[in-house]
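Key idea: predict the complex, not the pieces.
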Amino acid sequence: MKNHTYYPTYNVMDEQKEWDSHTRSIVTSRLQREHSHRFLTPVEAETLRVWCALLMDDHRGDIIQAILTHIDQTLAENKGEGQRKVNVPPLQKLLRQGLKAIDEAGWIADSRPFFQLDEAAQKQIMRQISDASYPLTEAWEGIPQKALFHKLLQLSVEAYYSHPLVWSEIGFGGPAYPRGYVRADPGQLDPWEAVRKP
Amino acid sequence: MKWRHEHDAVDIVIVGAGAAGGVLAKELSEAGLSVVVLDAGPWRDPQKDFASDELSMRSLAWEDTRIVDGTEPFGMGSHHSGRGIGGGTQNFTGVFLRFHESDFKTKSIDGVGEDWPIHYKDLEPYYSRIEKEIAVSGPKHFPWGNFNGPYPYPERDPLSPNAYLFQKGCEALGIQSAVTPLAILSAPFEGRPPCTNRGFCIEGCMPNAKFSTLIVHIPKAVQAGAEILPNCMVTQIEVDTQGHVNGVLFVNQGTTYRQRAKTVILCAHVVETPRLLLHSATPQFPDGLANSSGWVGRSIMTHSSNDVYAKFEQEVRLYKGTPVLASTQDFYETDPHRGFARGYTIHSHGSRPIDMAQGISKASHEPVWGPQLRQIMLDYNYYGRLTMVGEVLPQWDNHISLSAEKDENGMPRASVTFNYGDNDLKLIDHAVENMKLILKAAGGEVAYVVSDTQHLMGGCRMGNNPATSVVNSYGQSHDIPNLFICDASLFVTSSGGNPTNTVMALAARTADYIIELASS
Ligand SMILES: Cc1cc2nc3c(=O)[nH]c(=O)nc-3n(C[C@H](O)[C@H](O)[C@H](O)COP(=O)(O)OP(=O)(O)OC[C@H]3O[C@@H](n4cnc5c(N)ncnc54)[C@H](O)[C@@H]3O)c2cc1C
Ligand code: SF4
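Result:
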């Protein structure tokens, strides 16, 4: 399916001078391409690059790199997880060992790392992991497949839908301090909001 | 670390500077008592430390790992509790409702849950005081419960596109709706401006239009002489040989300190308060402090908070406006025809992109991802959303305990076990059906139902009987008279409405009681 946006010319960043400086610095930092990872190994990063691109159905390098940066930061900072289900290992372990098991799935399927498989094979493995039906090997010991899948989905979603390019595409008005919104009836727009193009 | 009361035994030490702790700190210090407030998190400046950004502002939440168990484990973290001076009021949505009279007597009226040791009438003056103190905005006439308005400040105007659609749907079905009472200004007050409808309440309000303990009660407490210590995680309550508490231990940057006090008040919220009590066990109190009944950590409750999304022909734009601006409580009281006890509130509820994508990704029993998720989110602006606040009945088995895993301070992590009961599930089904009907009546096509929870209550419930409750109605521990607990953990039942007005009213009532004790 060809993805379409209703707002092909809208760029939320055009409005950045209207934002407070703290918000602006947070958002603009997402546009900087960062390469050096603190936690992820090169193979882990490549595995994630295809995995997250398929999860979000988007292969634009900059955006996917922003997801990787977010995942790497989360793992390196190792702050609390909010909650963790009993019997799920701590995040660093879940991802480190989980990504190893995903990589191994590539070798088992086609004697190649997961990130080099063709897309159909990758998606097939992802679907199996998402419903915990991928055949267990030693690498999966202690790694619940569903929990791994959900964690990667959660991390990808939060990074992806924080990216200003994606905001522009979905027509999200973006940061709104100090100006806020005035026009509130359905169909009414403040001047800086995205306008649908026919 | 150096602080003013380092060497003193102060009158009062308060653990937790959230909704309840802030009220107590202000009232007690204004009454002339010496007060130290310790909070585990930072002291933020809204204009510098908040941002209009969903992802980065997750840092307002209590992010420490909690171990969850049960068939319906809570999503803890950002949905359930705050951290830092202001606690959950930094990142709450500002919906400010009173409980109804029936909420305090569910056992007598409906034969479910348990009765509170107080009546609505006991809290009424405190509700009024708090609402006036923070200038709650709301309708001239509020159709439900014991208080029908008018509110101190006028209702919000304009609302949001999503709220107008909700009102339209309700009207078509003959359901009453009203503009939601909010702890958000509709006009200037005490140097603070009215709301600008930017929609980022859960990320912390930058203009200070939304009430928070951080910007209201804490500055007033400081003015009255209270000492506030941020980044101080309390790890232990200390007990003397007579079995009275005499202070707390807390950790700041890896070092442990002691604050001595004549009275200790725990306001650390529903998970951390029981955790602290259980962890502070001594040979004299081997099952934890205040726990001779065995009720510490028991009967925790949440609100069922399922969301229903519907797609509209025209744009809705869920990002605009305060998230909640219109509500109905037509289904709040028990109706025997429905086949379950108690009820719920329905709110029109805005959403920013992460919130919606995260919800939709778990809307069905299989995760939604790839092209499907992307397509839905490309239509982000065409979705409207409603959410419920559903009463969850107390059950002994839903509880906080200490897990085997330790945190960086060597304190066992909290373990949170929760399952819905039958009544809870029937109530959710009913509410979801109604939300679907309202969205349809507004012209939407119902698309996704996301199950979720919000708000935490219970765990140290109040009662007159020391064998079946932890504290009396003033939050005073049955076992240890100079140990008070005063936060949402006191709740006996959860009600079908947002809880913070009640948390603060209870705290104001407890403050009066402590002041009276101190002066007698
Ligand atoms: C996203 C969100 C939206 C919400 N929306 C609404 C709403 O619209 N309406 C409503 O009525 N309610 C809402 N709530 C709920 C509301 O935030 C809580 O009901 C309220 O904050 C509870 O008050 P409390 O005093 O019990 O705890 P809190 O306000 O959570 O305060 C507890 C404080 O204790 C501190 N603490 C914890 N443990 C320790 C320790 N060991 N040592 C030192 N300090 C400690 C924490 O850092 C925190 O500051 C919302 C909550 C969230 C998270
Ligand atoms: S919508 Fe209003 S109350 Fe909420 S954050 Fe924005 S200005 Fe503050």
